[in-house]
Design a protein that fits this description.
With about 575 residues, chain A is of the alpha/beta class. Chain A is built from 23 helices and 20 strands. In chain A, helix 3 (about 55-70) runs parallel beside helix 5 (about 85-95). The longest helix of chain A has 15 residues, at about 55-70. In chain B, the strands form two sheets. In chain B, strands 5, 6, 7, 8 and 9 form a five-stranded antiparallel β-sheet that branches. In chain B, a hairpin with a 3-residue loop joins strand 6 (about 110-115) and strand 7. The chains are: A alpha/beta (about 575), B alpha+beta (about 160). Bound molecules: thiamine diphosphate (TPP) and magnesium ion. Chain B: Dimer of large and small chains.
């Protein structure tokens, strides 16, 4: 135990704990319950506090920071409305397993339960959307609680942890004691995979004729890309990834199959359909991946590695569960593999045929612009090495198809919750963590408006993000479903009459801005934006209105039955 | 089928809520839940009765384990265990029925805890099945009020 004889108040203890946890950046917004904390912060020089413009923005920034760096994102907000504004961001982080610690101010202990001014039962509200949460009842528990919160957020399956700090606790004083270690008897995640299971998995892999690696975000969060690449290449096994898994295996490798699932590639879904061995690593058989579960990988023996035992046999019954960290799983497997295994050339050739049958393509016309073109161009210009953040909608799915991710921690997107408004703040957060690669945001015209206030934050801190707005004047993804499944009743999705003049809006925020309406302008604008590093830069791409994301598995359909193109081409006008 | 699950949890505020809200959030059946301190004041024991097929019950057990405040989760269903429930029940009392009521209380090894001119309060302890039967048998005499504790259970000793 580390003790300083000197007494500190709760606010000082708070910052001392952040230092011990090596926190360099926090995203916050002040208020009554946090006055003492902000008083202390006034003289803190070694921790950077980023003032956001809405607490939801703070949570997405912290998550963007966490996903880009692998370090926990930290949020600081006041009680009541400050706390309730974090709910969407916390849920988002929970669904996508991002490590985050959220600190909320609370009314003084003596007033809790009295409907005091700016009181909200945030511990009660966030119980189902946090990995765990705490209400601090005594200043002497503050340091231990913070230590536990960081420990829980970052160990096992990562997730958000909330610490609620009443105002009187932040004022009270006590000796600062930093516990050397944490022991939470109810939290003992299995990290090391069972050797027997590994041995069985290795045998199956060696014998498989048509194996397929199905890779999820767990491989990214356990930093296991190197191991994955080694394994896949050693055995010539094709790799398909989920939205959150993209980048775990380099797109430049011939074994890369791109994404699977609802808007996955035709060949990846065909491969799932025909494989005799499916090796799921750090993935959870989400319904956007499996489609109809009874017809998912019907011929395959299924191996499933995940650090969270509840993910095993939740959506799909597997043949060989292997609970443990994905990095451990992959490294143990590499060691356990026999010298000789099947040659998969026939299998790869089969996949190649599917790839040639239905490649991902789009047409380019001189006088109109498509989102696919913009994303492809950015992918080429950045050589697949940018950190790419998206919002939610069609542009998000096109990003998964046309940006060729060559590195892990490079796609930052709201997968589980599908939160519009996530992109802009997440990009800002990512850029606070990553300086050696460009941070690019692809955003829709609908979602951009949902957290546009954070443009102030980007401008104020000169955050060099590239904001690429794909303006199709529609809530495009909803429009797509309306066209396909709801008799073309475009109910409340046409934004043409109501969207603002985005250039004027962005200029008013003090952000550099450009517009592109055709491929030539788009290319020039992308180059200029990528070369600009003085602060944020915004490009509005006026893209065609009625473009559709294909291929597509209709919700609840089998992934073997993909829609490959528009049902009714005349709606294209 | 019915499962009887024993869970050791941290004796902290909010723990019961965490468990109960996990059941409702995931749509699991929750027939009864009871909680009380153990020999260690920092630890409470919860007894949960739930229904579901093997796949669902296995998810219930894993989701319980996943909560940070749970220390140990045991499915007692197929292990030697003792299961008991307490029933408190107030019945209408009249000259005509009192004799039969007293006899039945004996049959069920119940106890009279209070008696008034027109009512009688009894306690019965037993397995939830026995409690169900007790209630059925007494129903015709007129039940004023009843309270059940929910099952509590432990492993049988070696
Ligand atoms: C907060 C929130 N509200 C509603 C939705 C439902 N939704 C999903 S995609 C979408 C349309 C997004 O439109 P836009 O941002 O313009 O992107 P596009 O699909 O046109 O690329 C909507 C409304 C959502 N995902 N999140
Ligand atoms: Mg749009």
């Amino acid at each position: 135990m580390h003790t300083t004889a000197q007494k500190l108040n709760g606010s000082e203890i708070f910052f001392e704990c952040l230092r011990r946890e090596k926190v360099d950046t926090i995203f916050g917004y002040p208020g009554g319950a946090l006055l003492k904390v902000y008083e202390t912060l006034y003289d803190v020089t070694d921790i950077k506090h980023i003032l956001v413009r809405h607490e939801q923005g703070a949570t997405h920034m912290a998550e963007g920071y966490a996903r880009a760096t692998g370090k926990p994102g930290v949020v600081l907000v006041t009680s009541g409305p400050g706390a309730t504004n974090t709910v969407t961001g916390i849920t988002n982080a929970y669904m996508d397993s991002s490590p985050m610690v959220i600190f909320t101010g609370q009314v003084p202990s003596s007033l809790i339960g009295n409907d005091a001014f700016q009181e909200a039962d945030i511990v009660g509200i966030t119980r189902p959307i946090t990995k765990h949460n705490f209400l601090v009842k005594d200043v002497r528990d503050l340091a231990t609680t913070i230590r536990k919160a960081f420990f829980l957020a970052t160990n096992g399956r990562p997730g958000p942890v909330l610490v609620d700090m009443p105002k009187d606790i932040l004022n009270a004083t006590c000796e600062f004691i930093w516990p050397d270690s944490v022991d939470i008897r109810g939290f003992k995640p299995t990290i090391t995979c069972h050797a027997n299971q590994i041995e069985k998995a290795a045998k199956k892999i060696a014998a498989a004729k048509r194996p397929l690696l199905y890779i999820g975000g767990g491989v990214i969060s356990s930093n296991a890309s190197k191991e994955l690449t080694l394994l896949a290449k050693a055995l010539n096994i094709p790799v398909t990834m989920t939205l959150q898994g993209l980048g775990a295996f380099p797109a430049s490798e011939p074994l890369n199959m791109g994404m699977l699932g609802m808007h996955g590639t035709y060949w990846a879904n065909q491969a799932v359909n025909k494989c005799d061995l499916l090796i799921a690593v750090g993935a959870r058989f989400d319904d956007r991946v499996t489609g109809k579960v009874d017809t998912f990988a019907p011929q395959a023996y299924k191996i499933h590695n995940d650090i969270d035992p509840t993910n095993v046999d939740k959506n799909i019954k597997v043949d060989l569960p292997v609970v443990g960290d994905s990095k451990d799983f992959l490294s143990q497997l590499i060691k356990a593999l026999p010298e000789k295994s099947e040659n998969h050339d026939t299998w790869l050739a089969e996949i190649d045929v599917w790839k040639k049958q239905c490649p991902l393509t789009f047409t380019v016309e001189n006088d109109s612009l498509k989102t696919e073109f913009v994303i492809s161009t950015v992918s080429e210009e950045t050589e697949g090495n940018a950190v790419v953040v998206t919002d939610v909608g069609q542009h998000q799915m096109w990003t998964s198809q046309y940006y060729h991710f060559n590195n892990p921690r490079s796609i930052i997107t709201s997968g589980g919750l599908g939160t519009m408004g996530y992109g802009l703040p997440a990009a800002i957060g990512a850029a606070f963590g990553i300086q050696d690669r460009p941070v690019v945001l692809f955003c829709g015209d609908g979602g951009f408006m949902m957290n546009i206030q954070e443009l102030v934050t980007a401008v104020h801190y000169k955050v060099p993000i590239k904001i690429f707005l794909l303006n199709n004047s529609f809530l495009g993804m909803v429009r797509q479903w309306q066209e396909l499944f709801h008799q073309e009743k475009y109910s409340f999705t046409d934004l043409d009459d109501s969207n603002p003049d985005f250039l004027k809006v962005v200029e008013a925020f003090g952000c550099k801005s450009m517009r592109a309406e055709n491929p030539a302008q788009a290319e020039a604008a992308i180059k200029e934006a990528l070369a600009y590093n003085e602060g944020p830069v915004f490009v509005e791409f006026r893209v065609i209105k009625k473009d559709m994301v294909f291929p597509m598995v209709p919700a609840g359909g089998s992934i073997s039955d993909m829609l490959l193109e528009r049902l009714n081409p005349k709606t294209m006008v | 089928m019915k499962h009887l699950i024993s869970v050791l949890v941290e004796n902290k505020f909010g723990t019961l809520n965490r468990v109960a809200s996990m059941f409702s959030a995931r749509g699991f059946n929750l027939q009864s839940i009871s909680i009380g301190e153990t020999e260690d004041p920092e630890i409470s024991r919860m007894t949960i009765v739930t229904r579901g097929d093997d796949q669902i019950v296995s998810q219930v057990l894993k989701q319980l384990n996943r909560l940070i405040d749970t220390i140990k989760v045991t499915d007692l269903t197929h292990q030697p265990h003792v299961e008991r429930e307490l029933l408190l029940m107030t019945l209408k009392l009249s000259k005509a029925t009192q004799h039969e009521i007293f006899e039945l209380i004996n049959v069920f090894k119940g106890k009279v805890v209070d008696i008034k001119q027109k009512s009688i309060t009894i306690e019965v302890i037993g397995s939830p099945d026995k409690i169900n039967t007790t209630i059925d048998i007494f129903r015709p005499y007129g039940i004023r009020e009843l309270a059940r504790s929910g099952a509590v259970a432990i492993h049988r000793g070696e």
